[in-house]
Specification:
The complex is a heterodimer of chains A (416) and B (436). Chain A is of the alpha/beta class and 416 residues long. In chain A, helix 1 packs across helix 7 and helix 7 crosses helix 8. About 3% of the residues of chain B have low confidence. In chain B, strands 3-2-1-4-5-6 form a six-stranded parallel sheet, with helices on both faces. Chain B is elongated, with a radius of gyration of 26 Å. The two termini of chain B are 45 Å apart. Helices cover 35% and strands 12% of the residues of chain B. Chains A and B meet through helix 2, helix 6, helix 7, strand 6 and helix 8 of A and helix 2, helix 6, helix 7, helix 8 and strand 6 of B. Strand 12 of chain A pairs antiparallel with strand 6 of chain B.
Chain lengths: 416, 436
């Protein structure tokens, strides 16, 4: 083994990041964690609202740098402030493009084109550029100008409908799952495009739609309609936490001791059922013919779940999880964020949460990347950039502007 | 300086249409014993990699998951297997047989990537894990996808999608605030496997790009638990910076304190989802919205100037007046059909969406304009079937759904005899021994 650390795998890849909120920053976070030089292009006249969301207590009022939410999403990146509505700002962007590999934006369709920042304009400057647009409906098609946030995309795609208790309105997702997922797919698309460019020298335009991403995550439900003529919208759907495919029982969440404490138990085989019965110390009811086979248990699921709930209610969910796992029964405590960050021995041993410094917020924990590589590594080197923190580094050191140019640009941009 | 870095060093090439998808020429072996490896393999196969799904002789457990085509349970009719295995080829072998392991080694000889999802230590115990192969195959990228990764106290836990979504964190944020006693909810489909598969595919691509520089492959240890744990948006900063938990809320973000309702049942029994309770965030939407409400006589008192003032000053305002606006809009949308609320709301630049079931998008012409849904031939059934396409459109090197999932063992002869050069008689012998 060499004693010299290998360079981060994406070192030398430069990303011009016009994205904001969650979906785009999620994509560039992954690239930055593996060493890409991600430069956020920001503009005080249209600030990323995450910069002012979930502002940390005890920070200066009106600060654009005090959001822990922003810190976690934008660590390892640089920030410059440029008014792209100003020709000098646009000229600086053009120079930045000539030394960059990837451009990403997640505005609604048409916004970048109107600013003179279309793919065609950028490819004229740098034919190798990879340009990713991430939006709800995509940049083609009759409804391309529809506006979406994560929950809108989840509703249209079908993912909201697929989450909930039967006979009740949809519960949906309690966060913007499709912002995360669109970010994952956009990062993956950027990697595919880098691979393609390595083979051919060619850059390209990439159009990512969040709603299409949602439909990609619902394939079998869509096939059930196109093959069997059966819509997912039907009585009994969604099935709550019970299992439809494959149909097995018991398969549900059960209340445990404590406030809002639950355990998920999923019995898939007769051996697991026998192990669960043994863990319950073989109560009489479990020997009844109503529970003797999977088919019988499915037919008597309400009673089965009530019986199991009566048993789990006395347990701490973590004790019960260990008890059941020791017998080979799939069981997991429903873990909230405090459980994951302060208690979960698995995440701790694997080092999933990792610490780094932020210039204003100080030392904090960050979510890591869910895989480890044997020769390369991801790193959270530093927290998110302050607004415009790297103006001088990027505009002067990288692009060769003079200090006077920068001062003028800064004053003019600040005046807008 | 490798070719994938620093665009300006690359000679400008004319933008001609490249006929093959971006991963053409890459060979991926996917050890497919159950549903855990499938989605990662599909993401690579639909982009042009030659992915060979290697199943046990009885078929992947994913082939036993319904629904089934025409409701006929059959190893070749699982819609779950169909969907997760498009554009792949399929062979069988048994790693329990020495001959099966020898074949596996030969398959790996020509491969760039291996995807596997076996329990930690299982392949090592059979003598065909990474440690046994890496010396011989220094360029191989090996991705292992497991519920918890290869290390840690939970690595041998028995898990399903439900238990992964519980422990990983998504469920703690999903559920109801207006249904007393409702449990945390697992959104259906196999999302823990989606998250794990997406990260595994990213890791494979990062390793392949790195290999251009170093010439060496490496091992990826992917944890589904960590993929779930890192995909819950606001719960992390709420705890790390405020030491507070989030409350589950119906149809909207879990939050530290209860927020106004977003989702309503419309006159046609379908739901509409309106960010921020439907309060316009663009002041220019306000008067057209009132005019639309007036058409139905449902604007109530919203013409009073105080309400417009709130919208102009701060559309994110939270207080009794804002709550009142949201309630009136809520009553209004309940009087109309959901799709009409959606279309007219969007025409006023409001991010409203109907709560559709996923298949209802087959009827929306926008997706036809984008050619999102694609037709896939199933020659054995004499049918062509509509599938969802890909989540990204790489215009210079598009992916595609090249073919339906392989039938069980469909490419065994092609791969073992025509490509690896086994004699047909040897193939028959392996079959009779149960090695394939």
């Amino acid at each position: 083994m060499s004693t010299i650390d290998p360079p981060p795998p994406l070192e030398g890849v430069r990303v011009v990041d016009f994205s904001w909120i969650v979906a785009g920053p999620q994509a560039t976070r992954i690239l930055a964690d593996f060493g890409a030089d991600v430069i956020r292009v920001e503009y005080a006249g249209r600030i990323d609202s995450i910069r002012i969301g979930l502002i940390s207590p005890d920070t200066p009022p009106g600060s654009m740098d005090a959001s822990g939410f922003f810190n976690n999403l934008n660590r390892n990146k640089r920030s410059i402030t440029l008014n792209i509505n100003d020709p000098r700002g646009l000229a600086a962007i053009t120079r930045l493009l000539t030394v960059s590999d990837i451009v990403i934006e997640n505005y609604s369709a048409g916004v970048m084109e109107r600013k003179g920042l279309s793919y065609e304009a950028m490819a004229a400057v740098n034919p190798g550029i990879i340009y990713l647009s991430v939006s709800g409906f995509g940049h083609k098609g009759r409804d391309r100008e529809h506006i979406t946030w994560g929950p809108t995309a989840q509703a249209v795609s079908g993912l909201t409908y697929m989450s909930g208790l039967p006979g009740q309105p949809s519960a949906g997702w309690g966060y913007s799952y499709l912002d995360h997922t669109a970010g994952y797919f956009a990062a993956l698309a950027a990697l595919f495009a880098l691979w393609h460019r390595a083979q051919t020298g060619q850059g390209q335009y990439v159009d990512c739609s969040q709603i299409e991403a949602g439909m990609v995550l619902a394939g079998p439900a869509i096939l059930d309609r196109t093959v069997n003529g059966r819509s997912y919208r039907r009585k009994g759907n969604p099935p709550g936490n019970r299992a439809t495919y494959p149909s097995v029982a018991p398969h549900n969440t059960y209340r445990c001791r404590g406030d809002d404490r639950w355990i998920a138990i999923a019995v898939e085989t007769e051996a697991q059922w026998a192990a669960l019965v043994a863990a319950m110390e073989s109560p009489c009811w479990a020997a009844a013919p109503e529970f003797a086979s999977n088919a019988a248990r499915l037919a008597h699921q309400d009673e089965l779940d009530a019986r199991i709930s009566a048993w789990t209610a006395a347990f701490d969910p973590f004790d019960l999880m260990l008890l059941l796992q020791a017998r080979g029964v799939p069981a997991g405590a429903v873990q909230n964020i405090a459980d994951r960050m302060e208690r979960d021995p698995q995440l701790r041993q694997r080092g999933f949460y990792t610490e780094a410094e932020h210039a204003l917020l100080g030392r904090h924990r960050f979510e890591g990347v869910p895989f480890r590589m044997s020769r390369s590594e991801w790193r959270v080197r530093e927290g998110a950039p302050l607004l415009g923190e790297h103006n001088s580094d990027v505009l002067c050191d990288l692009l060769g502007l003079s200090d006077e140019d920068l001062l003028e640009l800064t004053l003019e941009a600040a005046a807008v | 300086m490798t070719a994938y870095r620093n665009g300006p060093n690359i000679a400008a090439s004319p933008l001609t249409t490249h006929p093959s998808p971006p991963l053409a020429g890459l060979r991926v072996i996917e050890l497919a014993s159950g549903p855990r490896s499938g989605f990662c393999g599909k993401l690579l196969a639909d982009m042009g990699a030659d992915v060979i799904a290697v199943e046990p002789p009885g078929g992947s457990a994913a082939r036993r998951i319904g629904p089934f085509a025409d409701d006929v349970p059959d190893l070749n009719r699982s819609l779950r297997f169909w969907y997760d295995n498009t554009s792949k080829r399929g062979v069988t072998l048994s790693l329990g047989h020495a001959e099966g392991r020898a074949l596996f080694a030969r398959l790996l000889d020509g491969a760039d990537v291996l995807i596997e999802a076996e329990p930690p230590g299982e392949l090592d115990a059979l003598g065909c894990g990474y440690a046994a192969c890496a010396g011989r195959l220094p360029g191989l990228v090996w991705a292992a996808i497991t519920p918890f990764g290869q290390s840690g106290p939970y690595r041998e836990f028995a898990m399903t999608d439900l238990t992964s979504m519980a422990m990983g964190g998504p469920m703690a944020s999903c559920g109801y605030d207006d249904l007393p006693g409702a449990p945390p909810i697992r959104p259906t489909d196999l999302h823990s496997l989606h998250m794990g598969g997406e990260y595994a595919a990213m890791g494979v691509m990062i390793a392949l790009l790195e290999r251009l520089q170093s010439g060496r492959g490496q091992y990826l240890d992917v944890s589904i638990h960590e993929a779930c744990a890192g995909t819950t948006e606001g719960s992390f900063p709420n705890w790390e910076y405020f030491q507070r938990l989030v409350l589950r809320q119906t149809g909207r973000h879990a939050a530290a304190a209860v927020t106004p309702r977003w989702q309503y049942r419309c006159a046609d029994g379908r739901d509409i989802n309106m960010i921020g309770g439907g309060i316009p965030r663009n002041p220019r939407s306000w008067r057209p919205l009132l005019a639309w409400m007036d058409e139905h006589g449902l604007a109530e008192d919203l013409h009073e100037p105080q309400y417009e003032q709130i919208i102009v000053e701060n559309p994110y305002h939270r207080g009794p007046a804002a709550a009142h606006i949201a309630e009136v809009i809520g009553r209004f949308v309940q009087a109309l059909p959901a799709e009409e609320v959606y279309r007219r709301g969007q025409a006023l630049h409001m991010p409203w969406g109907p709560v559709r079931s996923p298949d209802e998008n087959l009827d929306d012409p926008h997706w036809r304009d984008r050619s999102f849904f694609v037709e896939v031939e199933h020659p054995d059934l004499g049918r062509s079937i509509t599938y969802p396409g890909l989540p990204y459109r790489l215009e210079g090197s598009p992916g595609r759904v090249a073919s339906r999932a392989p039938l069980l063992g469909e490419h065994t002869y092609q791969v073992y005899v025509q490509e690896l050069g086994l004699a047909p008689a040897a193939l028959r012998e392996l079959f009779e021994q149960g090695a394939i």
